[in-house]
Design brief:
By secondary structure, this protein is of the alpha/beta class. The chain has two domains: 3-86 and 236-437, Aminopeptidase (3-Layer(aba) Sandwich), CATH 3.40.630.10; 88-219, Aminopeptidase i, Domain 2, CATH 2.30.250.10. Helices cover 29% and strands 26% of the residues. It contains twelve helices and 20 strands. The strands form three sheets. The chain has a nine-stranded mixed sheet with strand order 1-2-3-13-4-14-18-16-17, with helices on both faces. A six-stranded antiparallel sheet has the order 8-7-10-5-6-9. Strands 11-12-20-19-15 form a five-stranded mixed sheet, with helices on one face. Helix 6 (238-253) packs across helix 11 (414-427). The longest helix is centred in the middle third of the chain and has 16 residues, at 238-253. The radius of gyration is 23 Å and the shape is globular. The relative contact order is 0.17.
Length: 438
């Protein structure tokens, strides 16, 4: 695989994943195609050496793992983690806002979204619906309207002459998108619209009524490689689907000699406190079933390492003052090790050194990020997972501009750089051997 092939797959993955549910579905499809077997949390697991498995939770989180020739207690587990969710606008349960012949949708902001980039975009709807089937049972399915069906129009500058100087956006008042225009907009049935779209996309599902839904808006402009010399990738949800795709591609390409695992959590953007989030029991539950013995479980964790992959803030040339002068990562200069004295990131000298040495062997450049001492620092699933299961952890990421915008920007070479290191990491037999070999 080369950089161009990697990026083609990344763009296809981003386009197929407008929501965490679609991202997990796309990941599961790829895993099945590469020989992984789906497990059910409610059933008994029969795991075998050399086996490759995956399990999902809430349709929005996933754990995939391969068992090597040695037992995990003997070799440890090479783990990588990312998150499937991104800041967005979610449709409220009773969303229709009718007036002046227009039908708008009430929305709720999910995560720390940048509001301004959502205006004047061609928006669509996607997510998960739960419906009553012809068999009088509850079923769940994914829907994606695909084409533009909504827009949030800006107010003309003639009506707000000070807009370019200062404008605070009120999410309750200013973010509801236009859905349609009708003489009687109050008669529109949103659940009926979802039902019709579901039946169009899955005509054999037997849906009779949509009872509830989790639907988000997304930008229909597809991701792309951009720049005069194709230096950048522009697209929605790079934070953190870029890391999800990189971890997935590295795991499937690593082979099966060493036990390796990929955890994709949901709800990172809102604190991770959920059954599918990093503060929940999902990963621990899977690891306990891999190593049921308390003794073996403790031995496995002591020999394991987790790489938490989440985008880093690249040094923006228009806002250099927002970065620490010695820790401003550049796009296309390699993955970034993220550190924080107050444990907002889980990296320490030991875990960072392993990553640096692996990258050195592969001739992959590595950068560092530390937030300015007078600014607050974000966080990742790294510290939460480390605290939850007690595993050594490292936080890394690809440098990015416009994080949490509806359209973010990353370097076109950095994802492949990170893929190379993660693939080598998944193949690493013993963490200590890299130190001894050096």
């Amino acid at each position: 695989m080369n950089t161009e092939q990697f990026n083609r797959g990344l763009l296809a993955f981003l386009k197929a994943s407008p929501t965490p549910y679609h991202a997990v579905a796309a990941t599961a499809e790829r895993l099945v195609r590469d020989g992984f077997r789906r497990l059910d949390e409610a059933q008994t697991w029969q795991l075998e050496a050399g086996g490759r498995y995956f399990v999902t939770r809430n349709d929005s989180a996933l754990v995939a793992f391969g068992l090597g020739s040695g037992t995990p207690a003997q070799t440890g587990m090479r783990m990588a983690g990312a998150h499937t969710d991104s800041p967005c606008l979610k449709v409220k349960p009773q969303p229709l806002l009718a007036g002046d012949s227009y039908c708008r949708l009430g929305v709720e902001v999910y995560g720390g979204a940048l509001f301004a980039p959502w205006f004047d975009r061609d928006l669509s709807l996607a997510g998960r619906v739960t419906y009553l089937g012809a068999d009088s049972r509850l079923h769940t399915a994914l829907v994606d309207f695909r084409e533009p069906v909504a827009v949030i129009p800006s107010l003309a500058i003639h009506l707000d002459r000070e807009v370019n100087k200062q404008h605070d956006i009120n999410p309750q008042k200013e973010l509801p998108p236009l859905l349609l225009q009708d003489e009687k907009p109050e008669k529109v049935d949103f659940r009926g619209l979802l039902l019709n779209r579901l039946l169009q996309q899955k005509p054999d599902c037997g849906a009779r009524e949509v009872l509830d839904f989790e639907i988000s808006l997304y930008d229909t402009q597809p991701p792309a490689v951009v720049g005069l010399t194709h230096d950048f990738i522009a697209g929605a949800r790079l934070d953190n689907l870029l890391s999800c795709y990189t971890g997935l591609t590295a795991l499937t390409a690593a082979g099966g000699e060493q036990s390796a695992l990929l955890i994709l959590n949901d709800h990172e953007e809102v604190g991770s406190a959920s059954a599918a989030g990093a503060q929940g029991p999902f990963l621990k539950s899977v690891l306990r079933r891999i190593c049921p013995s308390e003794e073996d479980y403790a031995r496995m964790l002591s020999r394991s390492l987790l790489i938490s992959a989440d985008n880093a803030h690249g040094l923006h040339p228009n806002y250099r003052e927002k970065h620490d002068g010695n820790h401003g990562p550049l796009l296309n200069r390699g993955p970034v090790i993220k550190t924080n004295a107050n444990q907002r990131y889980a990296s320490n000298s030991e875990t960072a050194a392993v990553f640096r040495l692996l990258a050195r062997r592969l001739r992959v450049p590595v950068q560092d990020f530390v937030v300015r001492s007078d600014m607050a620092c974000g966080s990742t699933i790294g510290p939460l997972t480390a605290a939850e299961i007690g595993v050594r952890t490292l936080d890394v990421g690809v440098p990015t501009f416009a994080m949490h915008s509806i359209r973010e920007l990353a370097g076109s070479r950095d994802g492949f750089y990170l893929f190379k290191v993660l693939q080598a990491f998944f193949r690493l037999e013993d963490i200590q051997t890299i130190v001894e070999a050096s």
